[in-house]
Amino acid sequence: MDVVQAIRLYISRMLEECGPGMKVLIMDKETITIVSMVYSQSEVLQKEVFLFERIDSRSREALKHLKCICFLRPTRENVEALSQELKDPCYGAYFIYFSNVIEKSDVKALAEADDQEVVREVQEFFGDYMAINPHVFSLNVTCCCENLTWLPKALKRTVQGLASVLLSLKKCPVIRYQNSSEVCKRLAESMRQVISKEAALFDFRRTDIAPVLLIVDRREDAVSALLNQWTYQAMVHELLGINNNRVDLSGVSGISSELKEVVMSAEQDEFYANNMYLNFGEIANNIKALMEEFQTKSQKQQKVESIADMKAFIENYPQFKRMSSNVAKHVTVVGELSRLVATHDLMNVSETEQQLACQGDHSDLLQKIKRLVASEKTSDVDATRLVCLYALRYERHSGNDLSSLLEAMTRKGVPESLRKVCPWLCECSALQTVKCVLDYGGASFRQTDLFENQNPVASAKRFFKGLKVRVPFPADVCPGRGERVRPAPAAAEEPRGAARPRQAA
How far is 234 from 228, CA to CA, in rounded Å? Predict the structure, then answer.
């Protein structure tokens, strides 16, 4: 199950199925991100795509000799914009691909708009998510809940995205969800409805072990989200921020213009792919080895004494230039990470976080947190995280002294807005943040013994008792029981990346 390869295969098919010749690629603001996460611009250019346009662009030059590939999300705005384009087409032929299931009424609207019969193909390619790594994807939903209840728009986008992932991977799962969570229950029910409605699309070959879609509430473990990370990819995202595989380094002192924004993609960067899950200490050694390799090749490039040397230099220069840029990028990123670790005393902060999460004497930890909160080195965000972790860890401890830590935060002058600490919370003050964290992930909600204060067997029983099952097809199941079921018999499996074709408009 590789979501990156699934999306890449879809895009390759789009660019190849329309045949040879010059092409233009029209996308919307979301599909641009979907494509750029797995394909570089140079790779797309190699597929004879010489022009990129946005569907909401109002002025386009008529180029009838070009074939137009449209990759769009099936939203009302995109369908309306595409209908307007088809009424007065700028290109000779249109190959339309939607990233998810499109309503029949929308297909009818496009057919009615195609007076000049320029549409050659309309298909659904289920690539409606951002593939970050082979086993990690994102829907870029920044806020999904309000007062611990789904926002309708966020729920709809989440269901669409999950359905797209399942269809692109050819999986029809048994749905299991955390019964104690209303948000999990509602998402599971919405997914069941979609799978039932689109039963023909989810009619895949049955496997010996049925795939499982497991839906668990983040509230069950609010601690992990509050800990500082120490692997390469996680540190870059935590301290610098990764937005659609791009890192903004414009705030780094003395940064060159070409390094103000860098791309961190495992598909395009071998060093990053090999080191993204290694810890920070190992990264330093590997950066040194990368530097030494670059210096060796750099010395070879300087020896140009004959025609043969000149020819070799010209042939190897693109690779050398690419390696030079890559070395500069990673040296800059690791250097900035090292500076932030030292500036904010993250070694001591992280050590205290781990002691809070795993073990540690209450009185010693309380004094250590007070010292760190009062320290000028400790950032406001890290101070708030430490206090939140303390509140969760010692919520029911007899010696709980949360009030003194809140007073220390007030004396430190922690700013009012600290939404970054807990992205799942609404914007609130530092003191309100601590209370919200307790309401969000406190002991009253959790099904598991997060801090291992109970018997492990009893804790496991309590958690699994809270899991329920939703099945997409009501077959081989006793009424009223949560037994896993077999899906209905399916036709022969199509190759990965297959799409459901529609009749051309």
Answer: 9
CB atoms within 10 A of CB 157: 19
Q: Give the C-alpha separation, 382 to 341, whole Å.
A: 12
Which residues have CB under 8 Å from 216's CB, separation 6+? 177, 178, 181, 184
For residues 379 and 429, is the Cβ–Cβ distance under 8 A?
A: no
271 and 326 Cβ atoms separated by less than 8 Å: yes
Query: How many residues in the chain?
Result: 505
Residue 417 pLDDT = 54
DSSP 305: -
Mean pLDDT of the chain: 84
Q: What is the DSSP letter of 463?
A: H
- The predicted-structure confidence for 164-212, as pLDDT tens digits, reads as follows 999 999 999 999 999 989 999 999 999 999 999 999 999 998 888 899 9
The rounded Cα 358 to chain-centroid distance in angstroms is 28
DSSP state of 342: H
Q: How far apart are CA 467 and CA 180, in angstroms?
A: 8
Q: Which residues pair with 25 in a beta bridge?
A: 52, 69
The pTM score is: 0.81
Distance separating alpha carbons of residues 280 and 233, to the nearest angstrom: 10
Share of the chain above pLDDT 90, in %: 58
* 30 contact partners, CB below 8 Å, separation of at least 6: 73, 99, 140
- In angstroms, the CA 337 to CA 207 distance is 45
Check residue 238 and report its DSSP letter. I
**56 C-beta neighbours (distance < 10 Å), count:** 11
Q: How far from the centroid of its chain's Cα atoms is residue 492's Cα?
A: 31
Say whether 467 sits in a helix, a strand or coil.
strand
Q: Distance between CA 85 and CA 74 in Å, rounded?
A: 15
- Number of H helices and E strands in the chain, helices first, is 17, 16
Query: For 201-220, b where at least 16 C-beta lie within 10 A, e where not — what string?
Result: bbbbeeeeeeeebebbbbbb
CB 352 within 8 A of CB 386: yes
Choose among 385, 321, 317: nearest CA to 354.
Answer: 385
Of 15, 8, 13, which Cα lies nearest the Cα of 268? 8
What is the Cβ-side half-sphere exposure of residue 306, based on CA atoms within 13 angstroms?
Answer: 2
3-state secondary structure of 428: coil
